[in-house]
Design goal:
Strand order of the largest sheet: 3-2-1-4-5
Number of strands: 5
Structural class: alpha+beta
Order of helices and strands: HHEEEHEE
Strand content: 25-35%
Shape: elongated
Helix content: 40-55%
Length: about 170
């Protein structure tokens, strides 16, 4: 699972903006010359449209990850009912960012009985909230406090999703 997280990080942080920049720059090079006919305009358009393409690619990448998570959640909901799990621990932490707003992280540790083999499993998921959504983070933790029940959707290869409407942190999807 660690390798998947590293691959997603590399893909989202390095490859996606690079590909977006290259595609934007190529589009500017192809379209600016016939439209303006001036080489100076082409030289100016390539980096500007390339930066716009990089920004569009990063936004599209985050939207794609969100779409994939909700699609996976719908598939697991259709494949069978959620197993009732018990929240073992719920921890909230705040990380201050010196260059901008910080974020709240709520980590839920859940125990449930796996329906395929009858073993009790324990795992955790993290949910991230922005600094201004402090109340949402605390409400989420109060709703899913220790000893409360929560729906668990078991997946393939020991994977699982919690049956909650909030989106987990990108590294826990």
């Amino acid at each position: 699972m660690r390798n998947v997280r590293i691959a997603l990080l590399v893909m989202g942080a390095i490859i996606t903006p690079f590909v977006g920049f290259v595609l934007g720059a190529m589009a500017a090079a192809v379209l600016a010359r016939p439209l303006s006919g001036d080489p100076a305009t082409v030289d100016t358009a390539i980096p500007l449209v390339g930066i716009g393409g990089a920004a569009a690619a990063v936004i599209s990448w985050t939207r794609l990850l969100r779409f994939a998570h909700y699609r996976h959640l719908r598939r697991l909901r259709r494949s069978g009912p959620a197993v009732q799990g018990k929240v073992v621990a719920a921890r909230t932490s705040f990380a201050k960012n010196p260059r901008g707003p910080g974020h709240w992280t709520v980590r839920l540790e859940v125990a449930w009985t796996d329906p395929s083999n009858g073993c009790t499993r324990t795992a955790s998921k993290a949910f991230r909230f922005t600094e201004r959504n402090r109340e949402s983070a605390h409400d989420f933790q109060r709703l899913h406090s220790a000893e409360s029940t929560i729906g668990v959707l078991p997946g393939r290869r020991c994977g699982f999703l919690l049956d909650v409407p909030e989106l987990p942190a990108w590294w826990d999807r």
